[in-house]
Design goal:
Elements (H helix, E strand, L loop, with lengths): L5 H9 L4 E5 L6 H8 L4 E4 L3 H8 L2 H5 L5 E4 L7 H12 L5 E5 L2 H11 L4 E5 L5 H7 L6 H7 L3 H4 L5 H21 L4 H12 L8 H8 L3 H13 L3 E6 L13 E4 L2 H7 L5 H5 L4 H19 L7 E4 L5 E8 L2 E8 L10 H10 L5 E6 L5 E2 L5 E4 L4
Parallel strand pairs: 1-4, 1-5, 2-3, 3-4, 6-8, 10-11, 11-13
Antiparallel strand pairs: 6-7, 8-9, 9-10, 12-13
Length: about 375
Amino acid sequence: MITRTLGPILSEKARLFPIVSVTGPRQSGKTTLCKQVFSEYIYYNLEAPETFQMIMSNPRGFLSGKSGVVLDEIQKAPELFSYLQVISDEQEKPGQFIISGSQNFLLQDRISQTLAGRVYNARLLPPDLIEIANSLTLQVNPDYYMFRGFYPRVIAQELPPSDFYPQYIQTYVERDVRDVLRIGNLALFQRFMRVLAGRAGKLINLSEIGNQVGVDHKTIRSWISILEASYLVFFLQPFERNFNKRIIKTPKIYFYDTGILCSLLNIQNEESLMQHWARGEVFENLVIANYQKCNLHQGIYRQLYFWRDQSGNEIDCIYESDGKIHATEIKSAASFSTEFLKHLKYFRKLSNDTDVKLSLVYGGNENWETADGIEIKSWKRL
């Protein structure tokens, strides 16, 4: 069993808000976590036809007077949000309802429009490396996690990735995408996902992807927004502080889970990943997605950036905290080279900021700090 960082945060917020919402991709562990944290609550799954019919036959009568209820897959019954709003206002009790759902592109709009000010929004992604290290023995090779990804059934139950991810992708496309986009050619959408996987860690060009898939750039933008809203992909925006250099202003795209990414790239096993042309991008995706997940699992909504100028100088990940810039370069090699520090040193000189904190994350297992203050981190320290 993997202990989730978000658990204590959910308990705390349920003492403050009448409604707590837990969203995230399918099979990321939302139901398990809600049942663990709120074990004394009554649990209802709206995907069960009999439960759905029982509640929807008289929503107000069913919900009125109740406190301590988990409503799972609530996007199946969007009509309930208005009732939740009214009842939470009438009773004014913290922790009345815990709502959970996977189709975030349907669920989040309802939460924002109807429950604003009454709900704490939490996001649960597949486990991050901190959660893995705290619950299981951490493997010595990053390729193990790059290929397997982090979905609980794959990690904790050791389900073969080649069995899990193709079925996961197929189910996602057939259930969620069809519900929202109403497209007839689902194979075309899957082709789009495979093309997008080949762009992971790269600058996004909608027209180029559209030409390769065979649709226009507006369609590609719409399709990416669906993947983004359902927590399959996310963007890193360029860091635009003016250093008197022309900088690239196009965002980069990443997948939240490298298991899905490897499956879309048709990587069949760990050994083939080690020789694959995209291994460096998959490793970079592993690191940046882990930063993103750790933030969300701790209830931190911190924007991550990258930086690149038109001369090709680049920093893979940047964020700001307490007025300081934290800049990280990412290299998949297992052996360290001083050449890896070139862009970090250039960035420090260009920024002219003595408070900038520089680090390198690489595929090896040792950690140390250089004489000029650059922290060298093993991927295990993420």
